[in-house]
Every structure is written in C-alpha cells, then in structure tokens.
Design a protein that fits this description.
There is one protein chain. Strands 3-2-1-4-5 form a five-stranded parallel β-sheet, sandwiched between helices. It is globular and about 50 Å long. The chain is built from seven helices and five strands, in the order E-H-E-H-H-E-H-E-H-E-H-H. The N and C termini lie far apart (58 Å). Helices cover 39% and strands 15% of the residues. Strand 4, helix 5 and strand 5 form a beta-alpha-beta unit. It is α/β, with parallel strands linked by helices.
Length: 170
Amino acid sequence: MRQRNKVYGLFIGKFLPPHLGHIDKIFDCAKNCDRLFVVVADSENRSHKLCKDAGICFISPKTRAKWLSEIFKQNKNIKVKTLKQGMLEAYPENLDNWKKCLFATTGHHFCTWFVDENFLEISKQTFPEICFVGFDRSKINISSSNIRRDPKKYKKFLINKAKTIFIKYS
C-alpha cells in the first residue's frame, strides 16, 4: 500500500497582536493539512517601530510565538515557529531569500500557503510551485493594524494574553 505525501501548510504573519481572527483562520487552515506551520515573521526593529507608533509597549516576536504556541498546544498538527529574520527585508522584498529562510525555519517544503489577500498575487508569481489560498475575512473582520490604532475599540478581538498589554497602554 502506497502512502500519500503529507500536506504541509504555512500560515505566516507578524501577529502584532495575535487576535481572534488569526486563531479562527489558523484552526480552519489546519483542517486542510497534515501539519500547519504558523510562522511569526517580524524583525524586532520593525516591531519596535510599530509598537512605538501605536503608543504601546514592545512585544517581541518570541513572545507572540509563545502566546500562539500556548493557544495551539492541544492541536498536534499545528507547529508555531519564529522566523529568524536577521537582516532579511520585510516581505515581499527579496523573495528568494524569504523562500530559503522559510524552508530553513519549517524544515519542510510546504505545498499550501494560507496568505492575506494583499499578498496573494505577488506570492503566486514568486512561488509558482506552491498553492496559495487567500483569507476570507468576512467571518471575523479584524486586522492587527486596526487593533494597534484603537485597542480599546477592538479589545474584544484580542487574545487574553494581549489584552492586558494593549489595554494598559491605550
């Protein structure tokens, strides 16, 4: 009996902050994979700037990955990783280097990438061998950018670990 190839998926983001829209979408995406890699990809320099601009305290990519790992610890096919960006430019710049870093981070060549609709077309052009699935935000229509702009207004969408930090500084 021949075994089928495993389906490895990728869900990547800054998760600054992780919110209920992310959580819902990750659970949905995981249903379509044998293993879903959730990758926190954000440089600390960029995070510092985004947090400073929003008037909130710095939340490291490592902390965000830890929060997500705690949420998904019961689901064995979801693995949370932190992309070691170093001097890597922000996505979608220098996509060849991004590709190498993603494969090094996950240890697998993934076949499905669940992607924000803003990056769908450029991702398809750059990685033609990967199946891209765009997000549908109609179920939980929220973004981390909106939360950073007005944490009090969108606090109901924050994960519990992030609520104390974001509401404290808003």
